[in-house]
């Protein structure tokens, strides 16, 4: 069975904090096809920490019943699609939820919340729920927002937050705390956390942010501070691994459909009309894939995980030519990161990096539009062609969360708080097969979530669009 | 391992069709903590049936790759939240998706589609996807819609369907095939199916409909007809068991939020304003629960699975009084089936039954409104009170599916077709832990999906609303 | 004309007609077919009042150009549809907009804003714009909200308002100031206005509210106080006369379409399905009429301005029978006040009055539903009939204003401020033939705006729905 | 003036002036300050044309009452904002609506409908309403859609239309008839109209299209054909003159607000965030202006009708610097045609023309973004700046019409039909001061509708945004 913090305490010296094998598993003791993933805990390095009864015990209106508190033996299995012809094995993660003991005295708790990276629907909802739940459930009264991302820890005054102030934040997209990329300076950040007396740090951000959070967590361990770090994965692209999806993703897909619908209208209303929609997704095509499966309008979906080509047999032009002949119009959905290897790059473009240090992505939609026009003029100089290109990126990521994502935001925020109050640290909360669990920060920071083009979700796309597989022969 | 149809054929005589133990499991052969649920198959009673290669093999544009076809050893685990301190056990269901062999020749296939019961967002999308996928993927050209529910089999002409006709159906709520309750006449229905030469029957409906479908399937088995019956669970209340949720549910929750938001505006804009929203859910409170978790406006959520009371310590009035004192307003969400035991019933009402033969539900929202007014007049005769009551039922169930549900509709329809083409029968397709699987009709017809008020989802609600637990002491 | 300002004018030897006579109703001097409607002004009874240059002169960024200030000779014609075969005559109203002189020193200005009566989309937007424009344009710093309608003047503390506080109010429906009906106590209200030192009072409400505002204005005149009263008509029913329409009306129609669409889906998805939608409109059918013209789904629209009957030749049942025969379904839209004379009333109901003292309206939608069912059972006992009834009232009036209404809210609020600052009083601002004008409060309080069933708007409805004219012969 | 009707009138002894002289432009006989604008009529050049009673007489369900038919003396005044200090004069237009006599026998009527130019919300609604009203009201059974704009008359087969086919067209944006620019060949078009036997031609398009329609009308007059030409102005930019606005405009503004809201969220969520939204409007800034007045988020609105400059005192940079200092963010709305004189043009760009022969517009939004970044790097090299640029054009013009525009589409289509049936030709139908009227095609083809920056609508913008007036000193 998994290592609970009490056993860890008992085990004491064997606990190798230095090499961070927190995600190690221990399945030797039984024959179960699971291994429970260990979760870092303050007591791993602060062995004398005192636990208190959970303040939820004293709520005026409701009374925790049997089963209300989650125990260490409650786990969530990760791999549920099994091929029975192979040996089974699955990781199991600790289930999220309130524990019967906590390691923070609410009156001594000082929480900081920060948002980093790009916008994503639901950020304000997560912040709001962190504030309201810390306040209402656990009675925490010192809650602060860090402005402008990581750099805000050391360069700006924190903003004091309370339920009244954040009451309507969820109605607006974006983040009322503002966000930025970069600005990560480990020592300055941890110094600031320490100086300001924060003992709970909630970090909302993507994979880059989570890698920073791992460093902050490591440094806090090194300094043996009683500060818990809870992460909440934010990635509109859905490229963070292990978790099912991140908040805002369903809203992004919903909003993307508006752009696809517009592209379809433009295409259908023209003679030989082609609509192109570029959707977010630098390394993964999840939004493009889900939008394609949700819409009835997409004829071809291009994602970073599969190559494609334009000319020749089995190529995009051949397919589109057939499509225009059959129905008079076509709609292409293309993920931001698709086809980057096909677009000619100037020397300057080869050098350029974005604010997070990633290579600059070229505009695949604009390139496709121009290639399509050149091709048509070459092949059908006397026929009309209309290509309309829509890039709805900023209109997608700036909307408030829809109902599905709002519920997610509530659960992910409450989960994070329950975990942090219970003394866990260096973890994120997130859904695994639709149940919220705790996952070590380090695992999440390293896991990638690409579209598995050998899997059925991608097969669905191909069966719906009837698009070529670009397996040139 | 699970019984594949070939083994079943080999096993021959042991196959006890009479007692329908199709949901029996077989785990004796190994030590896995799973038992794979057996799925009925045409070959169970038509032992000489010939299989053909899947027509997907011959698609012009794409080529099934390794792993494209699902095998009998691909299963989905049902129970993924585990308490490691107890012995583990989970049912496992066959994964949905194309099989490499099919038991229908598309040119001989004659499919019928019927919708029964109340409206639910996405019905038209499911119909459309059944038609388009049968046509485009498998080359089926004889596809018919049965009008007006079960009675339409024997009392109305079927409507011939094709992709062009259904092209835009998903843009409208409701069902273009029309629907009705009742009208189930087993012999007439199976006679009509036989007379019209249908060999695939797709039935979209709720638990009552699924019980009818089981009977149809049994009768077809009895007559040893080569007719596959595929079910698609439709229940806006989400009261069908085993599957995660049914299509339209997320859309219903999303739309319910509009009503809650309106109730909140009404409440906030009045002196001592109370807004009541009644949401669908006769036996279960899923919509109420999810809407409460998605909204930030609900102060109290009442569902059929828990009792409540109005007067006295720990009662609803006490809670609302406090709420009005603290914030000046309150919002109640109440599921249709909540509090039915509290509402006084006239003798006539005690007798009355609805079209499906269920006891008539009394209007809990109207009753609450009137009780609240009486209470206030009694307790605070000189103070204003405004109670606004919203019943958005028909505005919720009549909208088209949102993106999340649209994707579900696509997958559930394609899954059903792949299963039926592969010769399975007497099953439904539906998601289990987010992956589509096949489940015996009979299991689904009997399973209930209530809100587990001992589980954490309900605890979330209580932690968000801070509402009383009505555990009178 | 009844209002006291005429007497004031008569009395006024000190009144410098040279400056202000343009607002006299005087067309004798010329042959114009217009008569300009006189507007009350503080100087009517405070003859020595000093004017100042408009503070807009000193704006940092822009500079009033020629034509920026509206003069007394700028008017808006009311009657623009003319029958040239009759003698022409039209009232003309003073155009709204900034005047080059004002009668309030911003530093001495103390403004109060109150909302009365039922909810209407845009109330919060109007409040917000009053606050922001008083602050930003004229430099007023003392702005107060009166809570809970008229009774709030004398029974509650005013809330101090500023642009930061109201910044996002327009995103929520309803009124953040809360509202109520009744509570009108003239002396207490004017005493309170005087005691608290308010010298500008902005009153947002319907015809009842405007009749109250006339009394307040009269009493202020009687007391010769330097207090301007500006009204902003609010009526989601659009039953206030003279003005084109009030804010929120377009939003209400837009939202009503959702209910009609749902009713249509319910009707189309059933065998012999009838959908009924009850829309707001006690004395007038504007919302029903506009929604019918905007939708493509309505088969019959019933409004208070025309009688109808159920049975017999040319009756509703005959029409619906034909409709069901032709298309299988029908959608009825019925205004709240339609058919009140047809519904049987119990003695208790004959006595009952609502909070504003009006006779209680019976539920015409529920009555129609029940009559339809009885009729069908009588005439077609063996055929199915489904009647679904939707009352979307609270979901319509609680939404925020759409773009068209938001623009209206901006202009009506700015118009009111410009008028009040210029010393006008006892007036409302509102659009006449799409241009904002000033209208005496008294005129507006008395004018009714019914649907003219002899006019073409109603003829449009009849040509679209093809419904009977209920002109029994 | 090109049109033959004046000559026809002069020539016309057979012309029964008693019936038709009301449409003369003749005010000499009285002292009215109006002149009624004459409308072309088939009888102007086909003097023996027979009139019939209006088929509306024979409707089953309703009976035209007094005042149902519009007479020639019903007019709409155009200028209703008057300066009483100047002499008054206004044009008056014939009111739209059914006439008691028609000049087409429905059984002999053959109508053609064509859409030209770019997309605009509501096109499909107008087409649908034309088809349904011709069919239902007047009993016309030969109704055809011309595909692909003007070129479709002579290069494609017309599509036969009927109410069942077009039933749901209004639910989709764009035009189901497809559209294109160019392809105008007068002789080929009129030959095709004649060859195919069309005698009613409904042309939906913008100012360019209307200029083409004038030529078609002239040529038809020259050939003395009994073919009526009715125009329906379509311009999402609202740049067509005389009429209040064209259909789709309110929808465009509503949809533009989504982009502005997104830009505001992006700006507010960043450190020194600037959001830029480019809105449609090549020669006029109506959409930008209305969106600015409807939103609460715009800090500066730039339109083609006013110049602006970037650097120096009173320039855009100075204003934005102040804005960022005050609030930390800013939102710019810029019409497509604004600042074209400021953007450096390459020689190639100086030559380039679009499909309609207009000079190519450069991307003012992209240029502003790049200039802003250069300026900031120069002035504040160490401070963050985030500029997000949104171009929502295709997402705006491809949506279906909202309620307000849908009503407009109904009225404009019915108006056009009533006019054409009554024998008018060479006219458009459109709203003048909110009442539908008939206007000679030629007038509309020549009239421009710019934003009058001396008028108050523009002053409203400036008072709301507080933006500079760019009146450099």
TrEMBL record, chains A, B, C, D:
Binding residue positions for substrate: 235-237, 280-282, 336, 394-397
Pathway: Carbohydrate degradation; glycolysis; D-glyceraldehyde 3-phosphate and glycerone phosphate from D-glucose: step 3/4
GO molecular function: 6-phosphofructokinase activity; ATP binding; metal ion binding
Active-site residues, Swiss-Prot/TrEMBL: 237 (proton acceptor)
Protein name as catalogued: ATP-dependent 6-phosphofructokinase
Residue span(s) of domain Phosphofructokinase: 110-418
Primary localisation category: cytoplasm
Signal peptide boundaries: none
Gene: PFK
Organism for this UniProt entry: Morella rubra
Compartments where located: Cytoplasm
Subunit and interaction comment: Homotetramer.
Pfam families from the UniProt entry: PFK
């Amino acid at each position: 069975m998994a290592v609970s913090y009490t056993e860890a305490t008992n085990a004491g010296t064997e606990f190798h904090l230095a090499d961070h094998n927190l995600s190690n598993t221990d399945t030797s003791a039984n024959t179960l096809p699971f291994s429970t993933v260990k979760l870092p805990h303050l007591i791993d390095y602060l062995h004398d920490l005192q636990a208190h009864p959970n303040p939820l015990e004293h709520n005026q209106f409701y009374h925790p019943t049997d089963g209300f508190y989650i125990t260490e033996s409650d786990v969530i299995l990760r791999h549920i699609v099994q091929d029975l012809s192979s040996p089974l094995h699955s990781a199991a993660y600790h289930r999220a939820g309130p524990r019967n003991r906590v390691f923070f005295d609410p009156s001594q708790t000082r929480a900081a919340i920060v948002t980093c990276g790009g916008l994503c629907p639901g950020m304000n909802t997560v912040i709001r729920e962190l504030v309201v739940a810390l306040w209402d459930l656990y009675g925490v009264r010192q809650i602060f927002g860090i402005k402008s991302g990581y750099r805000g820890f050391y360069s700006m005054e924190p903003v004091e937050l309370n339920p009244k102030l954040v009451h309507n934040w969820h109605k607006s997209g974006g983040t009322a705390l503002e966000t930025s990329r970069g600005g990560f300076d480990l020592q300055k950040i941890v110094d600031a956390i320490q100086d300001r007396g924060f003992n709970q740090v909630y970090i909302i951000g993507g994979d880059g942010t989570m890698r920073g959070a791992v460093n902050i967590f490591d440094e806090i361990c090194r300094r043996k501070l009683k500060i818990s770090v809870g992460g909440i994965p934010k990635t509109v692209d859905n490229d963070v691994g292990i978790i099912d999806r991140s908040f805002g993703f369903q809203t992004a897909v919903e909003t993307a459909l508006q752009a696809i619908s517009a592209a379809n209208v433009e295409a259908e209303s023209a003679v030989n009309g082609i609509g192109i929609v570029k959707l977010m997704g630098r390394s993964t095509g999840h939004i493009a894939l889900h939008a394609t499966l949700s819409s009835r309008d997409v004829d071809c979906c291009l994602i970073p995980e599969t190559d494609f080509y334009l000319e020749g047999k089995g190529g995009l032009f051949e397919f589109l030519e057939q499509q225009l002949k059959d129905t008079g119009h076509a709609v292409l959905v293309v993920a931001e990161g698709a086809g980057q290897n096909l677009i000619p790059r100037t020397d300057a473009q080869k050098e350029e990096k974005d604010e997070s240090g990633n290579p600059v992505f070229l505009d695949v939609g604009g390139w496709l539009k121009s290639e399509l026009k050149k091709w048509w003029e070459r092949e059908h100089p006397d026929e009309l062609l209309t290509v309309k290109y829509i890039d709805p990126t900023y209109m997608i990521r700036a909307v408030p969360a829809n109902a599905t994502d709002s519920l997610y935001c509530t659960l992910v925020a409450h989960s994070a708080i329950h975990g942090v109050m219970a003394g866990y640290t260096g973890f994120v909360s997130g859904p695994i097969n639709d149940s919220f669990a705790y996952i070590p920060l380090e695992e999440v920071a390293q896991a990638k979530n690409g579209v598995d083009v050998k899997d059925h979700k991608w097969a669905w796309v191909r069966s719906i669009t009837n698009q070529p597989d670009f397996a040139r022969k």
